[in-house]
Amino acid sequence: xxxxxEVKKELFSHEDEKYRAFHGKLLKNPSIxxxxxxxxxxxxxxxxWKGEAEAFLTFPDEYYEVTFLKCALxxxxxxxxxxxxxxxxxxxxxxxxxxxCFDASCIKKHREEFLPYVERYLSDKREFxxxxxxxxxxxYYVEEQYLPLIFKSAERANAEQYYVMMAAAWLxxxxxxxxxxxxxxxxxxxxLPAAIHNKAIQKARESFRLDKEQxxxxxxxxx
Length: 223
Fold this sequence. Notes:
Layout: H1 4-12, H2 17-27, H3 39-48, H4 53-56, H5 64-75, H6 79-89, H7 96-101, H8 111-122, H9 127-140, H10 147-155, H11 162-178, H12 180-189, H13 194-205, H14 212-219
Helix pairs in contact: 3-5, 5-6, 8-9, 9-11, 10-11, 11-12, 11-13, 13-14
């Protein structure tokens, strides 16, 4: 079983000061301690440490990279083991990058079984826990049968929490792009908080998957 000191030594061998400064500005959270390991290297290390999730879960969350790797390794677990560990790592998320990169492909084949977890995260008042719920819907549930759930989830999202608002808008924008008529009809109902409504329109209009006429229709719905 790998040790924390071994992990730290490996991470610091890939330390990049310029990247640390750049990524730190993007994260916009001065309390996060970064080593400065670039994403391709982190992903490669995660693959090499696959199967070490149990050890990583005992490590302190001293550095951004360690928490990122915890999530990555938990995301590689089979669904049953993933469900046993996910509640332990989701509350550790304190930034958008770790949240949005937390990929667990096992959810794809177990979407109905994982919905109670998603619902619990969506109801959480912690900003990045709620964002994880919304991003999970974005990654695995943007299909026609889940549209009512997606609309309801976006409506109840706390628009005063910036990263929750942005995730909800991103989610609705993806619905608009993928199911344009349903998305357009939903926007016309005016059920979303104004901030999410307008940001969703903006993000959808930035997509190359919509044509000029569709973007004009969306622009006319701004509030």
